[in-house]
Amino acid sequence: MRKLIKSATFGFIIGFINGLFGAGGGMILIPILQKFFNTELKKSHATTTAIILPLCISSSFIMIKNFQLNWSMVILISLGGIVGGFIGANFLNKISNSNLKKIFTVFIIIAAIKMIL
Questions:
Q1: pLDDT tens digit string along 46-72?
Q2: What is the radius of gyration, based on Cα positions, of the chain?
């Protein structure tokens, strides 16, 4: 029961962040899965991808209803994202946990700096 409550609570927080910022919850969810659920690094990345998908879909319904979207941009970036996601997911199998952690850390630091500036 405790794990269920913890999972639902973190799910709510990640869903709220995803809806508010238009994704981005994965950067927070990966460390949560590792620290609070003792999930191995690569499994955390894979699990996060599977969790974020339904959150993005549910948020998209509200975004489509309330905001005017640039549909040509949605289509073009989505097509590139599908190809990039396929390649990245396959690359995840080949990269060491140590290098994955370093790359992820650098990515988060760069994103944080860009958000501040």
A1: 999 899 888 888 888 888 888 888 999
A2: 16
Helix, strand, or coil here: 97?
helix
Token digits of residue 27: 């950067």
Dihedral sign for Cα atoms in the order 17, 34, 54, 4: negative
Angle, nearest 10°, between helix axes 97-116 and 25-37?
130
Is 115's pLDDT higher than 90?
A: no
- Give yes or no for residue 23 having a pLDDT over 70: no
Distance CA 63, CA 22 (A): 9
**What is the identity of the amino acid at 61?**
F
How far is residue 74 from each of residues 32, 36, 66, 68, measured CA to CA in Å?
29, 34, 16, 12
Return the ∠ at Cα 108 (arms to 106 and 19), rounded to 5°.
160
Q: Are 25 and 52 in contact (CB under 8 A)?
A: yes
Residue among 79, 115, 84 at smallest CA distance from 107: 115
